[in-house]
């Protein structure tokens, strides 16, 4: 690939975008820095100008992912519709993005989480903080639904949000294993049972 001539912050962002596409397809450990830099058009020796280590690079990649993900789903979960409709729209978005072959929107928690948690404490912490933020956003939607009476549940909103997020992460993993979106059908039914 041709060498890129971009300002430092743009080049750093470009490297992260290229790496995300590669790692979404192959995983973290299967993608070497040389492959990322070659695809980004960046000289091999200049990686450490942008990142102190591959671990810092991986943490930055995950931070970027969570920032983009939350920017995309916050308007869905905090929409003007009834909270139950917002929650349903969020999980419809989940199916749309995780069921399709759109590498830029694939869930990096599912793809990289199990792989990197044992390799890097810094990356594990980014994953943990990011998922806590997502669960909190879901919990706020559930609380709003209890208030507007569009959601009926005997569960604590935080506990229910955690259970739903775990359910959907599991459905995403099962969909990958089965190469089918059928796992999402079961997740929808379970969600409708838990959130009436």
TrEMBL record:
Keywords: DNA-binding, Transcription, Transcription regulation
Feature: DNA-binding region: 32-51
Single Gene Ontology MF annotation: DNA binding
Classification via Pfam families: TetR_C_13 (PF16925), TetR_N (PF00440)
Gene3D superfamilies for the chain: Tetracycline Repressor, domain 2
Domain HTH tetR-type: 9-69
Protein name: Regulatory protein, TetR
